[in-house]
Design goal:
Blueprint (H helix, E strand, L loop, with lengths): L1 H15 L4 H12 L4 H8 L5 H40 L18 H15 L3 E2 L5 E2 L1 H4 L19 E5 L5 E4 L5 H10 L3 E10 L10 E11 L4 H16 L6 E8 L2 E10 L20 E10 L1 H6 L8 E8 H9 L12 H7 L18
Parallel strand pairs: 1-5
Antiparallel strand pairs: 2-4, 3-4, 5-6, 6-10, 7-8, 8-9, 9-10
Bound molecules: 3,4-dihydroxyphenylalanine.
The site of 3,4-dihydroxyphenylalanine has 11 residues, from strand 9 and strand 10.
Length: 366
């Protein structure tokens, strides 16, 4: 009895005074390890008579758990002290001039995405996202591209071997349009979103990379018409290019998910015939370049997404973010966007201190 009391007082005092984690661990092994003194005592229980065990059992168990608790408590104290000590020695001088430290830059794609979010936030749009690994239904079927639809062939899709619950192969999304479906299914109507992100197609040359970026726009509400679409695109492009003389041309086109469908060209000359935008300006249609696809959301798409097309309608658009960046900032090779070449980034990147805001101008100064 007195031996046990003595052992306990001794153990608890030494634990309480353990100077560091290593000393504490040595004590744990000394008392509670396989060969430890308390473990040794526990083993004697087996050789006792039932009467002895009835008295000694609770005492020894109590000793073991008190010792273990004391070790845990001391451990917490030591860890806390270590953290405090570290915090006291480390310091962060917020007054150091940041521009003298090594710095990174913001990639033009990120910059343009920030600009888009800023411009559209001002028009009441929020930013939506969806998965890059998509299923067939969201990427194609619900966008009115049934399995046999010829438009599917234009997408050069990357497929996975894995199939979804319908037995269809999963894929890398070929456009941001599936986010239209996901947003309608998830939040119902009305809706005003943009959805920027990565998309993938098996294609590669100076103007095509297997991964590129799009931004999708979707407005669903009551009594929405083509005029709203045109005004929104005009307002967006004027804000984006920071020019009031941006002219647009809407051409009838075809997309399975819009009806009617409109392709939008932007004029690259001003009224005096001077070039005002970069890019491949003299391509088809002198003075115009093709910029984005859009249209009134096809009633079937609205229905696929679970909304009543008699009640809700709206417009959608999709545009290449990389292309927007090239036009605005004058790069001509898309592949350089994804090379990670420090010299290119130094030249075309943006200062992280120059966040695009509408009040200061969304066109950051490089
Ligand atoms: N998803 C189309 C593409 O990748 C672009 C597009 C066209 C999106 C028309 C739209 C739209 O939302 O209305 O080629």
């Amino acid at each position: 009895m007195t031996d046990l009391d003595q052992l306990k007082t001794d153990a608890l005092t030494r634990i309480e005074n353990a100077p560091d984690a290593a000393a504490l661990e040595a004590l744990r092994i000394e008392f509670l390890g396989k060969q430890g003194s308390i473990s040794g005592l526990m083993k004697t229980l087996g050789k006792m008579t039932p009467e002895e065990r009835q008295v000694q059992g609770p005492l020894l168990n109590g000793l073991r758990s008190e010792t273990a608790d004391a070790i845990a408590a001391r451990k917490a104290v030591l860890e806390n002290a270590e953290l405090e000590a570290r915090l006291a020695t480390e310091s962060l001088d917020l007054t150091l001039p940041a521009h003298e430290s090594p710095k990174g830059s913001v990639h033009p794609v990120s910059q343009v995405m920030d600009e888009l979010a800023e411009i559209f936030a001002d028009l009441g749009f929020s930013v939506a996202t969806g998965p890059e690994i998509e299923d067939d239904w969201h990427n194609f079927t619900a966008l009115n591209m049934a399995e046999t639809h010829p438009a599917r062939a234009m997408h050069d899709t990357f497929y996975f071997p894995d199939v979804d619950s319908d037995g269809r192969r999963m894929l890398l999304r070929t456009h941001t349009s599936p986010v239209q479906i996901r947003s309608m299914v998830k939040q119902g109507a009305p809706i005003r979103i943009i959805a920027p992100g990565r998309v993938y197609r098996s294609d590669s040359d100076a103007t095509h990379t297997p991964m590129f970026h799009q931004v999708e726009g979707l407005v669903i509400d009551k009594d929405i018409h083509l005029g709203h679409l045109k005004w929104t695109l005009e307002t967006f492009l004027k804000a984006f290019f920071e020019r009031d003389d941006i002219v647009l041309r809407l051409r009838p086109s075809y997309f399975p998910f819009t009806e009617p469908s409109v392709e939008v060209d932007v004029g690259w000359q001003d009224v005096k015939g001077r070039r005002v935008l970069g890019g491949d300006g003299d391509a088809p249609g002198h003075g115009w370049m093709e910029l984005l696809g859009s249209g009134m959301v096809n009633a079937r798409v609205i229905e696929f997404a679970g909304l009543d097309p008699e009640e809700w309608q709206g417009f959608a658009f999709g545009v290449g973010v990389d292309r927007l960046a090239m036009l605005k900032y004058g790069m001509d090779d898309l592949r350089a966007f994804f090379d990670g070449d420090q010299r290119w980034l130094d030249h075309y990147g943006f200062s992280p201190f120059d966040q695009p805001t509408l009040s200061a101008g969304v066109g950051a100064k490089a």
